[in-house]
């Protein structure tokens, strides 16, 4: 069984952190959207309820989709909506400390991964999730642990996980068009 996790198209954040903040997606690259849609034919489609994820699904011709609120991006609490330049500098942190860090009023990466994991483990057939960079990393964390935080996840990129019985493996990470 394969789980394909597609990060939504480029979010139009205006240079601000938009974990749970609703922003639009730039779905203007119709060629890339069509190419991604061709890669995921036949899979069940589940999306985060975020507007940018639903817009990506619509632009790929995959709507209507089932929506699962557990697929939302990490909640950055007080950091939501801040410009990237104004976010606090945490300094060098070991991956374990970074994964456990909670922004004020938000959730840690581990909290988010614990929310996403039951969705992934409950899937029974090839499935496409249209979600966020954090969701991709949460899936990768099932195989590589906190090292998942070291992966870059491009907009409109596809990551594929494979499950055989209870075991998960990474098939591909960050596939983009072309």
Automatic annotation (TrEMBL):
| Taxonomy, superkingdom | Bacteria
Which InterPro entries is this protein grouped with? Answer: His_Pase_superF_clade-1, His_PPase_superfam
State what protein this is by name: Alpha-ribazole phosphatase
User: What species does this protein belong to?
Assistant: Paracoccus tibetensis
* A Pfam entry, by short name: His_Phos_1
């Amino acid at each position: 069984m394969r789980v394909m996790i597609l990060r939504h198209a480029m979010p139009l954040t205006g240079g601000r952190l938009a974990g749970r903040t609703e922003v639009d997606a730039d779905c203007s690259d119709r060629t890339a959207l069509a190419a991604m849609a061709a890669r995921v034919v036949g899979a069940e489609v589940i999306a985060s309820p975020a507007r940018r994820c639903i817009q990506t699904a619509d632009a790929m011709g995959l709507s209507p989709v089932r929506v699962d609120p557990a697929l939302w991006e990490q909640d950055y609490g007080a950091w939501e909506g801040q410009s990237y330049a104004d976010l606090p500098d945490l300094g060098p942190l070991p991956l374990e400390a970074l994964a456990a860090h909670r922004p004020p009023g938000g959730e840690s990466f581990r909290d988010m991964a614990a929310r996403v994991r039951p969705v992934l483990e409950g899937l029974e057939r090839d499935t496409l999730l249209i979600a966020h960079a954090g969701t991709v990393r949460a899936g990768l964390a099932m195989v590589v642990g906190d090292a998942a935080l070291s992966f870059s996840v491009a907009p409109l990129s596809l990551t594929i996980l494979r499950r055989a019985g209870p075991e998960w493996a990474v098939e591909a990470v960050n596939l983009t068009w072309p």
